[in-house]
Amino acid sequence: MVAPRVTGTTYAPLVKGVTQSYIWLMSFLSSLRPGGRHGLSSRETRDPIGYAIAAVNRLAQSDLIDRVGLRKQTEQAVYSTTRNGFRVATAAGRTYARAGRRTAGERPANAPSRGVFDLTPTEDESMLVDVVQELAAELFRPAAAAADEACAAPAEVLAAAQEVGLPGLGVPESLGGIMEERSAMAGTLVAEALAKGDMGLAVAALSPGAVATALGLWGTDEQQQTYLPAFTGTDVPTAALTIAEPTVLFDPFELSTTALRDGDGFVLDGVKSAVVRGAEAELFVVAAMLDGTPALFLVESGTEGLEVEADPSMGLRAAALSRLHLTGVRVGAEALLGDTDGVAYTECVRLSRLAWCALAVGTGQAVLDYVKDYVNERQAFGEPISHRQSVAFMVADIAIELQAMRLLTWKAASRATRGQDFAREVALARQLCSEKGMRIGLDGVQLLGGHGFVKEHPVERWYRDLRAVGIMEGAVLV
Amino acid sequence: MINLETPKKQAQLIDQAHQLAMNMLRPISRKYDRAEHEYPKELDMLAALIDGVSETGATGGAGAGGVRRDETPDKDPSKVRNGANLASVLSVAEMCWGDTALLLSMPRQGLGNSAIASVANEEQLERYKGTWAAMAITEPGIGSDSANLATTAVKDGDEYVINGEKIYVTSGDRADSVVVWATLDKELGRAAIKSFLVRKNNPGLKVERLEHKLGIRASDTAAITFTDCRVPAEDLLGSPEIDTKSGFAGAMATFDNTRPLVAAMAIGCARASLDLTRDLLEQAGVTIDYDRPAERQVAAAAKFLQLEADWEGAQLLMMQAAWMADNRKPNSLEASMAKAKAGRVGSDVTLSCVQLCGTLGYSEGELLEKWARDSKILDIFEGTQQIQQLIVARRILGLTSSELK
């Protein structure tokens, strides 16, 4: 039994009364089915008393009654970013002037290799990091708590990120961007610096750049000429790179979303998750299986068959995570981004994981800096708690593992920048950043005790954000 | 420009070390594990070979003495260097991939040689050339608390008179000299601790016994007593001044240089386990996929990924510490981080590989069980895991040793 869902497009007042009651009933019954709802495993069964209690409980939830009928269309957007299970059409798309030819586009050159072990960023990278660090400290960190609460990134934060040129970071100079060579290393340092401010805001700010970088790396001349000018201009479109899907044991190389050939073009069907700022996004890169191999497709918002549903999650709330539903979405031949043999796609998955590693390092550094001061100030038994080995050793281990995470991430990034294979390095970085990053988040809260559990301190947010690192695919890219 | 690859100019050296480890150490690895305290005579040939290659300059200064800080004026300070420190840790790791105990038994490559390289003056360095120096710090009453040692050195004319008992002296029987830590004045604490080079033929020095051990059995571990042991004053390493400001720095500077080396040993030993385990798993049909999420792979592959990631982290921390030394940056913090991470990863990797390989790994038929025994000492000597955590914590938190005990 599949219950119909509330959708924005069926919100016609005439049929509302009848339809809503039906929908309410069906969704109520379906919510009582075993299998995952309300955190129940499918092994749970309800007896008659259980059904009665569940029904009373359901009626008692006044905001639901409130939802049926009283919500105005204008409130929908605000509502949909903070509540899940509510779908609307994607943002009205802008019109991109088609240009260029369907031949391979510009490609950034590989950085040269000097063969010398070195941990010093280049001058350009250092300058970039200085700027971004300031942005993160002055703007991102102060805005983080409110953005987490609101499930939205403030406009001024996003504008500032745009102003320093983040969306053009992965775009070759010849196409109006700021990079002369492959930018994986610079992108890694930038993501690390931003996430030290706030991971959720960093993801929100880096999302358009992920799409621009993908266009720079794999776009045809036509795709680059059509879309990239917008990303290096003054009014950068909101854009999202979507790979993840809401399934258990998700594997980015075995997607449920499909692309079927249809004449010259393709028809896309499926559901993507962890879509950054999905409700506002004007351009999506969607991963789908084409002839059994994963591939990337450019989909403009407003295309028929696209619906977006808010999907607020444990953390990264400032990134306004959403689900994107694709139902018979028709795109042209020019929508295919990169090749059909999975090479570009595999690189995309790896570069995205690399970006998540960098974010973990940045947030881990935020935790270390914060707990360091806290344990030195917090008094217990007549002295700072940092004077106790059980506390001090936790801080030492955070510092040790964090530096190991950073070095692994940098190694993978520098290999990518030089055009060397980095499959192994990024896999190891992801493993360490996922495992130790979460440990750092966990210990960060533990070191503050009860104070770590309340929102007065940022450590509980970092705990929630760091859980994302081993789970996420797509969204960010270096 | 950020790059964490093995330096291009050291690739050949590391390859040579790997070939030596494979073809000279591995074939005798089990033999001397079983024949504890028997001198591995094959190593004399190997040491001669290494000395010969060193003369040509082809080793880039790698070896126990490779940790000396270069004090000559820098022609181009902006130039990033990959020097003897990196070459040393990378080649030591390769040799320990062969056999950790045999590396520790390598003539003229003792930890005492690293101590000499770290704190001796130029005149001493020249005079001690060619010696094989063991290192004597630990005493029956003190382990990690080396500032509190009881061995004394009393100035008497042109000589110092050393009295005390040292234990756990690696290569203490085979080496021809011992670097001994002793205090000039117990009242003055750590500042008064100095190191001395004592020749093994000194009548005041006596090797009391050799230990029977869990691992690194091919390496001799001696207990040595010093009874009115007279050494010439010029065999005090570094400065004889008791500088209460720089405190322990003189003798302790040794650790900044030897800790990355011990990290290198753990990294080499653990990689031996990883390499063999990967091969055995592949023969059993388990391949490690770097793209597929770990939770979509069999548990053994997922476990292997975790081990390899931890191992790589330790390896890069070790390279960082050595790179900083090569580029004359203070590296106490990074040296301790590398030692802490490599020490615990060494144990986790070697023990987990035995677990993954079952009774095959547990049996003396393979070397996996040996590596799991050898690795344990690497989380203990040159500062235990806990001492490294203490050093890192004090540095990060800005605390003194009286605040964070």
Explain this structure to me?
Chain B: Pfam families: Acyl-CoA_dh_1, Acyl-CoA_dh_M. Chain B: Belongs to the acyl-CoA dehydrogenase family. Chain B: This is Acyl-CoA dehydrogenase. The complex is a heterodimer of chains A (478) and B (405). Chain A has 14 helices and 11 strands. In chain A, the strands form 2 sheets. In chain A, strands 1, 2, 3, 4, 5, 6, 7, 8 and 9 form a 9-stranded mixed sheet that branches. In chain A, strands 10-11 form a two-stranded antiparallel ribbon. The relative contact order of chain A is 0.12. Among the domains of chain A are: 8-71, no CATH class; 343-466, Butyryl-CoA Dehydrogenase, subunit A, domain 3 (Up-down Bundle), CATH 1.20.140.10. Chain A is an alpha+beta fold and 478 residues long. Mean pLDDT of chain A is 89; it is low at 1-15 and 70-77. Chain A starts with 12 loop residues before the first helix and ends in a 12-residue tail after the last helix. Chain A has helices spanning 13-31, 48-60, 62-70, 76-82, 123-150, 155-163, 184-197, 199-218, 221-231, 343-377, 389-417, 423-448, 450-453, 459-466; strands at 87-89, 239-242, 258-262, 265-275, 283-290, 293-300, 306-310, 322-331, 336-337, 379-380, 383-384. The radius of gyration of chain A is 23 Å and the shape is globular. Chain B folds into 3 domains: 8-124, Orthogonal Bundle (Butyryl-Coa Dehydrogenase, subunit A, domain 1), CATH 1.10.540; 132-235, Butyryl-CoA Dehydrogenase, subunit A, domain 2; 249-397, Butyryl-CoA Dehydrogenase, subunit A, domain 3, CATH 1.20.140.10. Chain B has helices at 11-34, 42-55, 84-98, 100-104, 111-119, 122-127, 249-283, 299-326, 332-362, 368-377, 385-397; strands at 133-136, 152-156, 159-170, 177-183, 193-199, 205-210, 221-232. In chain B, strand 2 and strand 3 (159-170) form a beta hairpin. In chain B, helix 3 packs across helix 7, helix 5 (111-119) packs across helix 7 (249-283) and helix 8 runs antiparallel to helix 9. Chain B is globular and about 70 Å long. Classes of the chains: A alpha+beta (478), B alpha+beta (405). At the A-B interface, helix 10, helix 11 and helix 12 of A face helix 8, helix 9 and helix 11 of B.
